[in-house]
Amino acid sequence: MIPILPVISNIVGIYGGMILSINIWSLSSNAFWDEVLEFVTIRSFMHGFIKFFFFALIIAIVACYNGLSAKDGTVGGR
Protein backbone atom coordinates (compact mmCIF):
# COMPACT_ATOMS: atom_id res chain seq x y z
CA MET A 1 0.00 0.00 0.00
CA ILE A 2 1.41 3.36 -1.03
CA PRO A 3 1.50 6.01 1.72
CA ILE A 4 -0.78 8.78 0.50
CA LEU A 5 0.82 11.70 2.39
CA PRO A 6 4.12 11.82 0.46
CA VAL A 7 2.25 11.43 -2.83
CA ILE A 8 0.05 14.42 -2.01
CA SER A 9 3.08 16.39 -0.80
CA ASN A 10 4.96 15.77 -4.04
CA ILE A 11 1.97 16.78 -6.16
CA VAL A 12 1.31 19.94 -4.14
CA GLY A 13 5.02 20.85 -4.24
CA ILE A 14 5.23 20.52 -8.02
CA TYR A 15 2.04 22.48 -8.64
CA GLY A 16 3.12 25.12 -6.11
CA GLY A 17 6.39 25.49 -7.99
CA MET A 18 4.44 25.84 -11.23
CA ILE A 19 2.23 28.60 -9.82
CA LEU A 20 5.25 30.51 -8.50
CA SER A 21 7.27 30.13 -11.69
CA ILE A 22 4.35 31.33 -13.82
CA ASN A 23 3.42 34.28 -11.61
CA ILE A 24 6.83 35.47 -10.38
CA TRP A 25 9.24 34.56 -13.17
CA SER A 26 6.71 34.75 -16.06
CA LEU A 27 7.66 31.27 -17.20
CA SER A 28 5.18 29.52 -19.45
CA SER A 29 3.54 26.37 -18.16
CA ASN A 30 4.92 24.40 -21.12
CA ALA A 31 8.47 25.47 -20.28
CA PHE A 32 7.90 24.55 -16.62
CA TRP A 33 6.63 21.06 -17.45
CA ASP A 34 9.49 20.51 -19.91
CA GLU A 35 11.99 21.25 -17.13
CA VAL A 36 10.12 19.14 -14.57
CA LEU A 37 10.00 16.14 -16.89
CA GLU A 38 13.69 16.57 -17.68
CA PHE A 39 15.06 16.95 -14.15
CA VAL A 40 12.62 15.18 -11.81
CA THR A 41 13.17 11.44 -11.72
CA ILE A 42 11.67 8.51 -9.89
CA ARG A 43 14.74 8.63 -7.65
CA SER A 44 13.65 12.09 -6.44
CA PHE A 45 10.30 10.70 -5.36
CA MET A 46 11.93 7.71 -3.70
CA HIS A 47 13.99 10.04 -1.50
CA GLY A 48 10.73 11.55 -0.28
CA PHE A 49 9.25 8.14 0.49
CA ILE A 50 12.36 7.07 2.40
CA LYS A 51 12.37 10.29 4.45
CA PHE A 52 8.66 9.85 5.14
CA PHE A 53 9.24 6.34 6.45
CA PHE A 54 12.07 7.34 8.79
CA PHE A 55 10.30 10.44 10.11
CA ALA A 56 7.18 8.37 10.79
CA LEU A 57 9.31 5.77 12.56
CA ILE A 58 10.95 8.41 14.77
CA ILE A 59 7.58 9.96 15.65
CA ALA A 60 6.12 6.55 16.50
CA ILE A 61 9.07 5.59 18.70
CA VAL A 62 9.00 8.88 20.63
CA ALA A 63 5.22 8.73 21.04
CA CYS A 64 5.31 5.12 22.27
CA TYR A 65 8.15 5.87 24.69
CA ASN A 66 6.31 8.87 26.14
CA GLY A 67 3.05 6.96 26.31
CA LEU A 68 4.55 3.95 28.02
CA SER A 69 6.48 6.04 30.53
CA ALA A 70 3.47 8.17 31.52
CA LYS A 71 2.63 8.14 35.20
CA ASP A 72 -0.79 8.41 36.86
CA GLY A 73 -2.62 7.05 33.81
CA THR A 74 -4.47 9.56 31.67
CA VAL A 75 -4.27 12.26 34.33
CA GLY A 76 -0.60 12.83 33.61
CA GLY A 77 1.75 14.15 36.18
CA ARG A 78 5.38 14.84 36.19
Can you lay out the helices and strands and say which pair or pack?
Elements lengths: L3 H20 L5 H11 L2 H27 L10
Helix pairs in contact: 1-2
Report the end-to-end length measured between terminal Cα atoms.
Answer: 39 Å
Number of domains: 1
Structural class: mainly alpha
- Annotation field: number of helices: 3
Report the principal-axis shape. Answer: elongated
User: Mean of residue pLDDT?
Assistant: 88
The run of helices and strands is HHH
- How many E strands? 0
Q: What's the oligomerization state?
A: single chain
> What percentage of amino acids are in beta strands?
under 5%
Q: Tell me the Rg in angstroms.
A: 20 Å
Structure, described:
The chain is mainly alpha-helical. The protein has one domain (4-70). The protein contains 3 helices and no strands. α1 (4-23) packs across α2. The longest helix has 27 residues, at 42-68. It starts with a helix and ends in a 10-residue tail after the last helix. The mean pLDDT is 88.
Summarize the structure.
By secondary structure, the chain is mainly α. Helices cover 74% and strands 0% of the residues.
Keyphrases for this structure?
74% helix; mainly alpha; single chain
